[in-house]
Amino acid sequence: MKLLLTGAFTWTEVQKGSLRDMGFDILYAEREDGVLPPEAGEADAVICNWLFAKHPIQQFPKLRYIQLLSAGLDRVPLGYIRENGIVLHNARGVYSIPMAEYAVSGVLQLYKHAEFFSANKRAALWQKNRELDELYGKTVLIAGCGSVGSETAKRFSALTDQVYGVRRHPDDAAPFFKAVYPVSELDALLPGADVVVLTVPLTEATRHMFDRGRFSLMKPGAIFVNIARGGCVDEPALIQALRGRLGGAVLDVFEQEPLPVDSPLWTMDRVLITPHNSFVSQANAERMWRVCAQNLKDWLR
């Protein structure tokens, strides 16, 4: 069987050897948006990131297996994949820990006024700030209770016992959440949340999930965190909310990436901006390899 690997992941010779030992002939494409190897259309399996956003999946008529290097499924033609019985895996669990740590870190930076102290350090200015806050006792609401949401809840629950979640199918046994509610209860829960964290996948149901109406329900002074997808948020509505009732935002994803230089978000106080970077960790490569290898072994069996 032929397995197409892409340069979206840095493959070691040892890893490639392990894949050959499983019975795969290895094909390799350095760039997913570039020219593919001549035999790419013969691939039975693919491990990739953006490949099918750059090349029509119909170019791979023998394809039976896809392993994505991303957690989101918004980069692949799900209808075609279902219709043709192609096995699909995402990178579930690979990026959850760094993303969860990022969410907590971002909120703490706002509560502890890290930007204020950083600016004073550069200016060699000794000045106290009497407006620092704490997470203890705060209510955290996490929209999306999958792997990322659960790891986020785990870390927030070490700092406050008021961590709640909403998801399509509530699970009474969800650890680290005080309670998990159906998405239909989101509007009723927003007014009581001090921190709202968005971790849902981008689908037609979640596109602009947070719009002007949802932001208007949020508690004055609340902090909004988006580590999901930029398309889950109506960005002009978010900007308006940050000029009004919201107390700050931690934003790693945006509707247009890179974020345009003329976006008002760049110059807003109490808005932490990072370039779709929350998933990054030195530990990711080993986790990703374990997921890829195990999923392929299971499929072959």
Q: Which structural category fits the helices and strands? A: alpha/beta
CATH class (first level) name of the largest domain? Alpha Beta
The proportion of residues forming helix, as a percent range, comes to 25-40%
CATH topology tier name of the largest domain: Rossmann fold
Radius of gyration: 21 Å
Shape: elongated
> What strand line-up does the widest sheet have?
8-7-6-9-10-11-12
CATH superfamily of the largest domain: NAD(P)-binding Rossmann-like Domain
Q: What is the CATH-assigned architecture of the largest domain?
A: 3-Layer(aba) Sandwich
Percent strand equals 15-25%
Largest beta-sheet details: 7 strands, parallel
List the total number of helices. Answer: 10
Topology:
Elements lengths: L1 E5 L6 H9 L3 E5 L15 E4 L2 H4 L10 E4 L9 H6 L3 E3 L6 H16 L2 H9 L16 E5 L3 H10 L5 E6 L11 E4 L3 H4 L5 E4 L13 H6 L5 E4 L8 H8 L5 E4 L19 E3 L10 H17 L1
Helix pairs in contact: 4-6
What does this 3D model show about the protein?
Helix content is 30%, strand content 17%. The strands form 2 sheets. A 7-stranded parallel beta sheet has the order 8-7-6-9-10-11-12, covered by helices on one side. It has a 5-stranded parallel beta sheet with strand order 2-1-3-4-5, covered by helices on one side. It has helices spanning 13-21, 51-54, 78-83, 96-111, 114-122, 147-156, 186-189, 212-217, 235-242, 284-300, and strands at residues 2-6, 25-29, 45-48, 65-68, 87-89, 139-143, 162-167, 179-182, 195-198, 223-226, 248-251, 271-273. With 301 residues, it is α/β, with parallel strands linked by helices. It is elongated.
